[in-house]
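In this section we walk through a basic example: taking a raw amino acid sequence and producing a predicted 3D structure, encoded as discrete structure tokens. The instruction is simple. Fold the sequence below.
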Amino acid sequence: MKSIEDFYTRVNSSIAEEISVAQTLEDSAAQSRFAAKYADWGFDEDTWRVFWVNTLRMRSVTRKTGEPYATHPTRMAMLALGVIGRNPSGQKSARICLLHDYLEEGDGVSFESIQKLKEDLAGQSPAARMGAVLLTEPLIDYSQYPRPRRWMEQVSYVLQVRTAYPRLLNEHFNSIFLDKIDNGHDWRYIVENADLSEERRRARLIQKLGHFSFVAEAFADRANLKLLQLLRKTITDSAREFAITKDEVRFVKVAYENTLVEHRESLSKAIDQYWSDLGIKEQQQPGSSEANASEVADSSDGGD
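The resulting token sequence is shown next.
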């Protein structure tokens, strides 16, 4: 891959149409012909299987850009292979990318939806199934907090991932960074074309870039270096394009960090209860104050 700009120029010219076609294909023969036609995407057999599970599930969901929602995880998966390589880690990262919004943009996260996901994959890709659960913002009661719900969801997501650190693979963190990189490109388009005042448009971008920076720093110790650099470049390029200063982005990032510190105890208790309701087992590690999610969606080996 020459550059991130080249990637988006090449992929965005056709991806929405290609996904729209894929979402009409339900028989295995038609799917095989599609996979052969787009072999240059680099997906292996297992990744194609996850692609079909996710793409067909999202047939009725659209992105704020107007594209089929499945374009987002598909771009993420393609970018994973472009940056990491078409090796086992790249393919596993791609599968986690493909499923990262499966529950959130589908039926929501529940015991029943997790069981359905297990059935859809018939025992395949346990790491991707685990990512579908733990890389989704926890559904807890945010009404007691002074910040807006969306802000608190983003903070609790970071805390949930931090809590699950020992259980998550490096490929899960690859998916987190790829999600923010792709969202960054979409958000620049969305905000530019939104019916907002210039002041409101700029404020929304600052908040989004501060959030990306919060995530980048929270998980920098588990990041693929190339992906961390790409996310930081996405933040820097967007800020430069809209004349946003580093201090403005840093101010929002610090506000997220302070919210996490201030409400960590209550959010941790809520996340513990949420995991318990989902049937996710917890195991306290010696010397650690954070829970280790020892099993998620029957993914006892944590691998593919």
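Looking at the output, two observations stand out. Residues 283-302 have pLDDT under 50 and may be disordered. The first helix runs from residue 4 to 12. In the next section we compare this with other chains.
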